[in-house]
Specification:
The complex is a heterodimer of chains A (161) and B (252).
Chain A: H1 2-5, H2 13-19, H3 25-44, H4 54-60, H5 66-76, H6 87-123, H7 133-139
Chain B: H1 2-15, H2 24-27, E1 50-51, E2 55-56, H3 57-67, H4 71-85, H5 93-156, H6 159-222, H7 225-251
Antiparallel strand pairs in B: 1-2
Chain lengths: 161, 252
Amino acid sequence: MAGRRAALKTIDWLAFAERVPPNQRTMFNNLKTRSDAISAKLTGLPEKPAAIDWAYYRSAVAKAGMVDEFEKKFSTLTVPEPVDTQTSLINTQEAESNKTATAYIEASKARITQYEKELEKFRNMIPFDQMTIEDLNETFPETKLDKEKYPYWPHKPIADL
Amino acid sequence: MLSRLVLVSGSALKGSGPLGAGLVHASRSLHTSSQSLAPVPPLPEKGGKVRHGLFPEELFQLLYPKTGVTGPYMLGTGLLVYLLSKEIYVINHETIAAISIGSVIVYAVKKFGPSVAAFADKLNDDKVAKAQEVKDLAMTNLVQAIEDEKKEQWRTEGRSMLFDAKRNNVAMLLETNYRERLHTVTNEVKRRLDYQIALQNLHRQMEQEHMIRWVEKSVVGSITPQQEKESIAKCITDLKALAKATQAKAAV
């Protein structure tokens, strides 16, 4: 009996929905409908079954001792709880997803630093009307004319002019 | 004019400087200050000012402290008169050609200079604007990319909610199953007890009916014909008495 009650955590579906990226929205909706169906079924069932009126049965049934026997057996009967096979699976899934998430966050942070560096480069650039061609080639290496490959002016294929 | 001369000779020397880095000192001989690697200062907006289209303004500024406003003009007039009178400069047809061509050139530059300059500036400005656009676009894209990355990181923080939801589902299913089992047990026990009661009731009912039928049969069988005649005669006399009583009542 002890393991049963503590399991249910309240889930804030609104906050959850905010965090879902748009390409996973259908999966999220399916999950939500399934969860709602399950919880509806749960709340539809009363927690304890209706008590059996033993006194009435004792007075009504003629066979001696039958009711007493039933009552004794019934009170000593314990219904076994269903075995939980899935929670450990879910826990392993969660551990895995935590790992991938941390890896993703690391990669994302690396990307952010790279973007920040490029942004800094753009911010610290001198204005275009004060640049010389050498400055331009430094800031944007792709504008450098390849004088070895194309030794004659205009130092790039004619089609690129 | 003289300052221009210096500049022109300086640039010519620099341009014709010998190749190779080792001989750079010869080409830099006119640099008076030490070299600095600072970025090139911005180009001046307008060219050097000139008076009357030919004479640089610096000359007038140079002579102003000593000789005032008319100084350069006096210098020019005196110089011209000296050259002509001493025949250092001889007037010939080339002079006329020079004067006409010079005046036309000065007039043309004065008239069309600004518009040509504006046109050239516009060409340059277009190039700069295009480059600026590229730069701005790149910057906004980078900022947007950083925002998106931060948003995705925030999104991953919600992953625990998914697993909470899954565990909740599992717990709810287990609970539902357990309750269903309890209910099933109770219902089965009730059914068995109710069956016993129903069985008893059925027994009693059948016994009752059987007894009634048996009693009826025996009673009907026990009525002998003699008793039947007697009972019929008694019924008739009773009826007659009753009829007399009701007739009497009705008459009253």
